[in-house]
Amino acid sequence: MKKITFLIIALLSVVVISMTAKQAVPTFSKAGYFEVANVERQVWNFNVGWRFYKGAQEGAEMTEFVDSAWQVVNCPHGLEYISDIASGSNNYQGEVWYRKHFTLDNALKGKVNKLVFEGVMGKCKIWLNGELLTEHFGGYLPIIVNLDKNVNWDGDNVIAVWTDNSDDPSYPPGKSQKQLDFVYFGGMYRDVWLTSTAQTYITNANEVDKVAGGGVFVHVDVPSDNEALINLNIDIQNDGKKASSGLAEVSLLNPDGELVKKSKAKYAVAALASQTLQLTMKVKNPRLWSPQSPDLYTIEIRLLNRKKAIDGVAVKTGLRKIEMKGKDGLYLNNKLYPGKLMGANRHQDHAVVGNALPNMGQWEDALLLKNAGCDIIRAAHYPADPAFMDACDALGIFFIVATPGWQFWNDNPAFEQYVISDIRNMVRRDRNHPSVIMWEPILNETHYPDYFAEKVHNTVHEEYPYQGAFTACDKRAKGQQYFDVIYVQPYRDFFNKYIKDTPANRKEQAFAYDKEKRCIFTREWGDCVDDWASHNSPSRVARNWGERAQLIQAKHYADPENYLFPCWETFYDTPRQHIGGAIWHSYDHQRGYHPHPFYGGITDIYRQPKYSYYMFASQRNVDDGYDPMVYIAHEMTPFSEPDVTVFSNCEEVRLIVYGQDTLTQNVADLHKKMPHHPVVFKDVYDFMDVKEMSRHRGRYDISLVAEGLIDGKVVARQVRKPALRPRKIELHIQSAALPLVANGSDFITVVASITDADGNVKRLDESYIKFEVEGEGQIIGNSEIMTNPRKLEWGTAPVLIRSTLNAGEITVKASVLDEGANQPLSGTITFSSVPDSDKFIYSEIGGEPKSNEHQETQTDVEELQLKIRQLEQEVNDLKIKEVERQQQEFQ
Q1: Backbone dihedral region of 750: left (phi > 0), alpha (psi from -120 to 50 degrees) or beta?
Q2: In Å, how far are 4, 151, 294 from 243, measured between CA atoms?
Q3: Nearest residue to 304 via CA among 246, 227, 389, 238
Q4: Which H helix or E strand runs over 810?
Q5: Contact at 8 Å (CB) between 49 and 72?
Q6: CB 723 within 8 A of CB 763
Q7: pTM here?
Q8: Fewer CB under 10 Å: which end of the chain, C or N?
């Protein structure tokens, strides 16, 4: 066993779960590539300063159109801020306009200047100075336009974007939002970049229409532990009127940034033509990529002309080899993958902002799931943001890429052409990511023509004609025989108290293992609804429903002895052939067809963990380098269960009750299949005992203490105490490990809790909290969508704080809405945003709407008032103790 670093968690109600000792630093690609220093190619952040109008506007594409009354916003941008319960199709669907005024430096004249939109929801048209550049259908893949023919080099330019997220069956997904299990939140909701290159440059695979070509295509083979082969295809375009020639120089940097290999190849490209170079690099003793060791190499490619670097791009890749060996299971880097590949599905929406999640928020999503034991994510049901893909690579999360589609088919041939185009472009965009393990080109849960399955399977392999490309499809779908991996549920979910173990039922499911030759994965597990319309389920639990509901959900996801359906225990009782599964769903998310959000996530829509999150996190093995952890799923309230459930990844769990009774459970003695089964200590809590002990405060240790032991030593510890009188508001940053970037788009979640004097959270407090901010930050949302002020739910109230373009200090204050002498004291938290390394092009700056809720805090008067209230509270405490003493005398 590896050396264990002792981790003593002495927090009262917070458990810190860290991924590994080595934490990846967030870095993001821009317009399809990572940047290379000292080359002519330049990339600007084009997110800032768009004028926005919700509705139709005649003539808004024209340069002379007056837009001075329009709101100024920054991208990523949704059409509106949404309430926490934004399901039921209450979001805006319709036309909107964006316009941006900008100038370009004359030094860029003669260059190739393009805009790259990472995602615009729905159908859109883009104009520059009144001239239509392109029309696009679909909301999840890049749009690239060339600006050079229409740029005004002597003054103002206007880029105008019309977009419409209305229902439209002509392109995928195609289904009406009112019957859709997610939401078409609209807008320019991903990044916008401006690139400038020399006339000879490396192309973007999503712009050039080349099968298995365009851009940079990286394919890795790992013949042995001691050797890896990197095969490169580099597409070079010459937009000049003369032939261009020189050297392509390729540098390979190891995960520490050290040069380990350099290759060169000559290029010679005719005017207005392209050329593809092919190179192979051999790496000795490579550091292989895996979820446990997500080491990334950097490939820097420079085009040299007379020793001048006229272009350059970088690609990050992992040296890894994936094999699906049917009944022998999943092999990674020539070895059987240890255990099961467990994870979650993920929709992209977030509280308040909808789909407009900035890059650091994408990284936070990936990190949160990684820390929860998720080593695989399935896209639901469209390609993810490029920043999320970058995070999966760096954090070690396998990813299943899905084409846009959900329970809908249109017989019009144009619809099929859009589907095929989406498949080609999703492969071209994501083919270099080491995190990609499968491609799902089929339309989710859709009845399509008989020939279609073979066609989409072949399309993927045409675009990725090498080892390591695996298509996936449901076993019961048409044409399933063409696909490389099959989606099937584990058979054990049929054999429980609700469905008899009959020969017919066994035959229905056993084919997955008895007859199937391919590897099997479960695309969605964990849900259990009474019917599709109602969706009542023990897995669908809003966080604010409290302790018992959350505990039921966590047990449901852990073991079939508690409820129905596949779960951790089920998967670990399947053969190698069944390589794993993804829970439906990672986070609570909004839905078009149902009036309530989906509540089956292991966190809420703000990414605040539920008990099930900690159950997932406890499946991380200490031997794989993860920290030991222990979590008490019990709040010691008057309504808490007699049983105390503890989640831990340790060998043994010890529970100390009230400082007197010590109970111990060795996890191996539970005889379970899953890595770390929850430990339940029966009938150890009774609030009447707590009540009696509290009358004699100081004589008893009124607490539950859980300790995790490995090799007989305590390596993790948590203390839980009942929350007493509300005294103060405490604030914390939900993802404190990640910086807030001063780019006008990034935001963080600040969470307020009402606690007692010792910091124990009052879970049952339902006070209203109002937030104020000063410095280089702005509050997202307002009272109209009930985000500020907002009611405490399960003891917490989150608020989103957006950065400005200026790095600096930010102070957030939280107080109860109706302050009084005996109300909890207000709380503050101060932190700083960090400068952005991006270069920006803008003439205006977007920001949050001003209101009387955005006030400056921490004036001298307020500080004095706070001190006075603290003194008053101390005096009141003495008076309350006297009242308590008098009550006890008469009992």
Answers
A1: beta
A2: 62, 25, 42
A3: 246
A4: strand 809-816
A5: yes
A6: yes
A7: 0.93
A8: C
Tokens of 106: 């004359």
Q: Is the pLDDT of residue 3 over 50?
A: no
Give the separation between CA 440 and CA 400, rounded to whole angstroms: 7
SS3 per residue for 661-698: EEEEEEHHHHCCCCCCCCEEECCCCCHHHHHHHHCCCC
Phi, psi of 445 (to 5 degrees): 50, 50
458: helix, coil or strand? helix
> 74, 845 in Cβ contact below 8 A?
yes
pLDDT one-digit tens code per residue, 318-344: 999 999 999 999 999 999 999 999 999
Sheet holding 839-840, edge to edge: 143-146, 112-117, 192-197, 42-45, 839-840
DSSP 209-264: --TT-SSEEEEEEEEETTEEEEEEEEEEEE-SSS-EEEEEEEEEE-TTS-EEEEEE
In this predicted structure, the answer to whether residue 538 has a pLDDT above a threshold of 80 is yes
Q: At what angle do helices 413-430 and 452-463 cross, to 10 degrees?
A: 30
Residue 837 to residue 742: CA distance in whole angstroms: 9
831, two tokens? 């932190």
| Cβ density class 59-81: b for 16+ within 10 Å, e for less | ebbebebebeebebbbbbbbbbb
Residue with tokens 């990844």: 649
What's the confidence (pLDDT) of residue 817? 92
DSSP assignment letter at 318: -
In the numeric block, which tokens belong to residue 851?
């209101």
Q: What are phi and psi of 123, to 5 degrees?
A: -95, 150
Residue 25: how many other CB atoms lie within 10 Å: 8
